[in-house]
Amino acid sequence: MSILDKSSRIVVKIGSNTLTHQTGNLDLRRMELLVRILSDFKNAGHEVVLVSSGAVAAGISRLNLGRRPESTEEKQALAAIGQAELMQVYEQFFATYGHTVGQMLMTKDIIDNDVRRTNARNTFRELLKLGCVPIVNENDPISVEELKFGGNDTLSAYVALVCGADLLINMSDIDGLFDSDPRKNPSAKLIDRVDVIDDTVISYAGGAGTDRGTGGMITKIKAAQLVTEAGIPMLIVNGKNPEVLYDICDGKHVGTYFAARK
Question: DSSP letters of 155-214?
């Protein structure tokens, strides 16, 4: 049985490296395919929240900059430009399949403050009630700390908690959690299920993300800790082919499944 049979509210996170070509420009074909599949999930009766990175990458692409920004101020400016570009692309693709999107930009202080967290929860609830797809990103243009140290792995976990999600799917550029770095060790073994996140599991998560992203496996493990302790399972899957989401829907085991603790 598919884990989606029990999941009416799904948070899907996709990172910058998965959304872009090696050039750093947006991979429109992959984005369109992702939107089509998420639209299909909505057509099947699921509620979908998308946590999407890619604002800085979109800003670089929009300005034909051809390089990563060097200063925090430049990153913030590019994020401001790129977020508008990113939402325009998503809005056009989702509209093609008959769905409406709503933008949610969040910072850590929203999570830490009871009133703001409640307001965010209420907004998510109303957007989903209206049949919209909330698209969430960190508010990088005004959040220096989040831009330097944050990441959408952590954000997606908090979004899942605030939304009361039934499942978090973390779409990465790797097949899941391995017992060593598969980029360096061809014999690395995929861990298909994690019931307890202990020191051994944490030791598997080494290294940083790629130069087009800000995360790494350790941030995904920490995200899994947050949601599983709250009773929400999480999957890490390879987002290079978004049709892996259909495999999940069909009950096939893909990636690494982190079981809920409650």
Answer: HHHHHHHHHT-SEEEEEESSSS-BSS-TTT-TTPPB--EESS--HHHHHH--S---TT-S
- For the chain, the average pLDDT equals 88
In angstroms, rounded to a whole number, what is the distance separating the alpha carbons of residues 262 and 96? 39
* CA separation for the pair 11, 151 (Å, rounded): 16
Provide the pLDDT for residue 81.
93
Give the sign of the dihedral formed by CA 251, CA 179, CA 160, CA 85: negative
Quick one: which of 42, 38, 39 has its CA closest to 13? Answer: 38
Q: Can you tell me the distance from the alpha carbon of 38 to that of 15, in angstroms, rounded to the nearest whole number?
A: 16
- For the sheet containing 167-172, what is the strand order? 101-106, 133-138, 47-52, 9-14, 167-172, 234-238, 256-258, 193-194
Helices (H), the chain: 16-19, 28-43, 55-62, 72-96, 108-112, 114-129, 144-149, 152-163, 199-204, 217-229, 244-249
What is the Cα 62 distance to its own chain's centre? 22
Does the predicted model carry a pTM greater than 0.85? yes
Is beta strand 193-194 parallel, antiparallel or unpaired with respect to 256-258?
parallel
- Which of 165, 167, 164, 135 has the alpha carbon at shortest distance from 152? 135
> Half-sphere exposure of 92 toward its Cβ, with a 13 Å CA cutoff?
8
- Tokens representing 125? 């609830």
Low-confidence ranges of the chain (pLDDT < 70): 1-2, 6, 143-150, 206-215
* Pairing verdict, β 101-106 and 9-14: unpaired
Encoded tokens for 39:
């639209």
How far, in Å, CA of 57 to CA of 213, rounded?
Answer: 9
Contacts with 90 (C-beta within 8 Å, 6 or more apart), sequence order: 31, 35, 50, 52, 101, 135
